[in-house]
Amino acid sequence: MEIREEVFGEVNGQDVKIFTLKNSSGMELSCINYGCTITKVLVPDQAGNFENVVLGFDSIEEYIHHSPFFGCVVGRVAGRIANSQFELDGITYDLPNNEGVNHLHGGDHGFDKVLWDGKIEKGTDEVKVIFTHKSTDGTAGYPGNVTVSITYTLNNDNEFNISYHATTDKKTLINLTNHSYFNLSGELKRDILDHELTLKSDHFLKLSDSLLPTGELVAVDQTAFDFRKGRKLIDGVQSDHQQNQLVGGGYDHPLVLSANREDEICLVDQQSGRKLTVETDEPTVVLYTSNMMGNDFEIRGVPARKHIGVCLETQHHPDAIHHPSFPSIVLDENEEYRTSTTYRFSVM
Predict the structure, then answer these.
(1) I need a surface site. Which of 41, 167, 292, 321 has the fewest CB within 10 A?
(2) Where along the chain is the active site annotated (predicted)?
């Protein structure tokens, strides 16, 4: 196992650090302390060729000016909050609106824009980076001083784990996820439409025209949202279902998981033979197929475009604060927020 720390760039006069984790099989993961952002994941295809399978940049300037949340941790609350406002114990909190009238992924100064503290740990069978940050009371309109730690761990089984922990001194909201865009073809040789996804989910959350959950659970039966026996992502692009059309042709939907820690999410690229299995303790995964990706920048020499990556954002339901029937994202001062997701890479 190897781990190294280097300077990646500079933000506001402070060094941005890049951490590179490598296991005995040759799998390599790089991340920076700006937004806890995963910049590269190198894994082999069925012929043993190691290539990068996530979208990212080689400079901090590109992340600042072009990144649509590539590889970062988003928070305090992932997803949209309706009308950039919520109420806790009779107090109304106003948040900055950064997507129309709504608040998205913690706002323009969310966790993805923070320079986190990073500490490395090396063991015999695993290496890890522990990122920490204290979000002060009132940041982006949220109450409470919140102390957050995010741990990235790589082991010798080609498993990468993200564990999240947070505490607060005042009741607040917390719902974190990692926003990596995967493309198992390697080095963005192809788009992700022929990737096959198998997902243990019987229902998805219906979205409004503002892409907010309406609160309605929709059965996946006889729709392009039924991944229980596996289907290609292109099915969502070609679907005439109003929900697929609403998000620009494809997916940008929370799918409610019917199992946890049971190989519940599996993504395969048949041509390269790469397979990604995701296990989590979260109730939902937001599936996003880059339908809104702009084409005004490049990703390591490859023009950005729709459907070039797929996000599998494990989290609680979006906008849960406005839906009492959803699992709660309220964190009280006597509670701890803990969740984790594991990504396992293999070949077919």
Answers:
(1) 292
(2) 179, 313
